[in-house]
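Consider the tokenized backbone below.
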């Protein structure tokens, strides 16, 4: 039986050898590939009549070159950018600050540091300054303020809530009465290991809560910082994955270079001064069981080479590149920046600034806190009714808790450093996250909360979890306004 593949080539007076046949047959969309191959041969290798794997390589290289040429920067965009100043500085990067060898002593130091940093922030609350040590709450006290780390949150059979709090002097049990609806509601989103303040009284045994105080945001009047340019945010590109949507990514770069979309879109592209990448640039290897089957590029070095080839077309705006859980760096957070060991070409690209996860950067006056967002997995597990699509709510919570990954010891591996770098000490203008592959935008107390989605189509794993990614949609902050561009055809 002659296969339809062979037939199609025969019609074009072409033969196909065994290796090329197997390769074509293994392609998800071989009809398209055959049509393209025939076209390529007619136009470029007219003297050939046998298709070999070399012909396929030649075709692929030719395609790459064609796409590359259509992507190269528009002269107008180039001229505009040459006249723009693009100053930036890294306010917080933990890459070379990591000293842990992971013993228990470090863990105590780590939690003490978390406690001290957040206590200072809670104490800035004007109604909260005379803090009682928890060890001194075992007598009757009409009024007290304590600050502690949450060891546990439980419900009683009568519908009250019991919080176990700990400070460096001891532990205490806090009762939240069920008729205090606001507080009971607040308890729904309190997480293990976060730091809170309690305003209340003590009956000598239990502390009765009047109010729960979060570190939160004390800013009184919030005004947008001046911004007459645009910042583009992406993450979760997953280069190397079979599901990486290269066509959408190429269109994105083409747009960034002023060569895609209408006049408005070109104008928008011309105003872009920075690109921030929030992790999972590549798909990595061995990140989850059986990942091999989902990989188009099975070698980590080659994945970063491919990333360098794709990002190489963005040549004259600074790219801030922070890692995620699929990147080749320590998995435990804070994750040091990706290094030359795995990503030589990217590190050599002069407009790429490798930073840690998390990190805080100042882009011409706009402070961006970049955090990949692994802790969302833990928050989704811990809070009833939250899904991976609720990043705007989860980002609000993180800001109220002033901590990027409150829960210790679950899916988010946290290195027990001497210092807790996930505490949000300095408030940003933008909190940029990724990881969930679903974009979102909200503004909260003057801070832009932005999740940048993905360039990876739905994977088998995500099907099981019913995670529907927003693939190829790119958020942009332009003059303090949010815009979303779609680079998918469908
Ligand atoms: O994450 C891709 C998506 O999969 C994102 O929505 C989070 C989700 N995800 C990743 N790991 C887990 C685990 N362990 N449990 C539940 N959901 C998860 P990515 O980091 O790109 O693989
Ligand atoms: Fe991802
Ligand atoms: Zn991720």
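A designed sequence for it:
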């Amino acid at each position: 039986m002659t296969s339809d593949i062979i037939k199609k080539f025969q019609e074009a007076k072409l033969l196909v050898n065994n290796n090329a046949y197997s390769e074509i047959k293994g392609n998800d969309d071989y009809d398209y590939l055959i049509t393209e191959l025939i076209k390529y041969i007619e136009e470029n290798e007219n003297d050939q009549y046998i298709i070999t794997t070399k012909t396929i390589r030649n075709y692929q290289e030719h395609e790459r070159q064609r796409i590359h040429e259509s992507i190269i920067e528009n002269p107008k965009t180039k001229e505009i950018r040459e006249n723009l100043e693009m100053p930036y500085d890294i306010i917080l990067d933990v890459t070379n600050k990591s000293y842990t060898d992971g013993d228990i002593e470090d863990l105590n130091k780590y939690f003490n540091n978390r406690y001290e940093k957040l206590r200072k922030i809670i104490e800035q609350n004007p109604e909260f300054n005379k803090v009682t040590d928890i060890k001194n709450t075992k007598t009757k006290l009409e009024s007290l303020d304590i600050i502690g780390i949450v060891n546990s949150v439980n419900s009683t059979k009568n519908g009250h809530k019991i919080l176990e709090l700990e400070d460096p002097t001891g532990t205490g049990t806090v009762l939240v009465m069920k008729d205090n609806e606001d507080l009971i509601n607040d308890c729904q989103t309190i997480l293990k290991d976060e730091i809170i303040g309690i305003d209340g009284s003590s009956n000598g045994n239990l502390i009765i809560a009047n109010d729960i105080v979060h570190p939160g945001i004390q800013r009184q009047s919030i005004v947008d910082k001046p911004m007459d340019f645009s910042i583009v945010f992406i993450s979760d590109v997953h280069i190397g994955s079979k599901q990486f949507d290269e066509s959408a990514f190429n269109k994105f770069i083409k747009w960034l270079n002023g060569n895609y979309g209408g006049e408005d879109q070109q104008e928008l592209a011309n105003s872009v001064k920075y690109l921030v990448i929030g992790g999972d640039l590549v798909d990595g290897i061995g990140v989850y069981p059986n990942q091999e089957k989902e990989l188009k590029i099975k070698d980590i070095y080659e994945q970063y080479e491919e990333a360098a080839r794709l990002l190489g077309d963005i040549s004259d705006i600074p790219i801030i590149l922070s890692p995620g859980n699929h990147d080749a760096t320590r998995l435990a957070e804070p994750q040091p920046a990706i290094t030359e060991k795995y990503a030589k070409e990217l590190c050599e690209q002069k407009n790429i600034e490798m930073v840690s996860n998390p990190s805080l950067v100042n882009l011409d006056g706009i402070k961006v806190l970049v955090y990949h967002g692994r802790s969302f997995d833990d928050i989704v597990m811990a809070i009833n009714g939250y899904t991976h699509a609720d990043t705007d709510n989860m980002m609000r919570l993180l800001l109220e808790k002033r901590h990027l990954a409150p829960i210790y010891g679950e899916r988010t591996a946290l290195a027990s450093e001497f210092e807790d770098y996930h505490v949000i000490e300095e408030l940003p203008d933008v909190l940029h996250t990724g990881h969930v592959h679903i974009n979102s935008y909200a503004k909260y107390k003057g801070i832009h909360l932005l999740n940048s989605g993905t360039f990876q189509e739905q994977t088998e794993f995500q099907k099981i979890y019913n995670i529907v990614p927003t693939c190829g949609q790119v958020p942009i902050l332009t003059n303090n306004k949010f815009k979303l561009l779609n680079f998918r055809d469908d």
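The CA atoms of residues 77 and 83 lie 10 Å apart.
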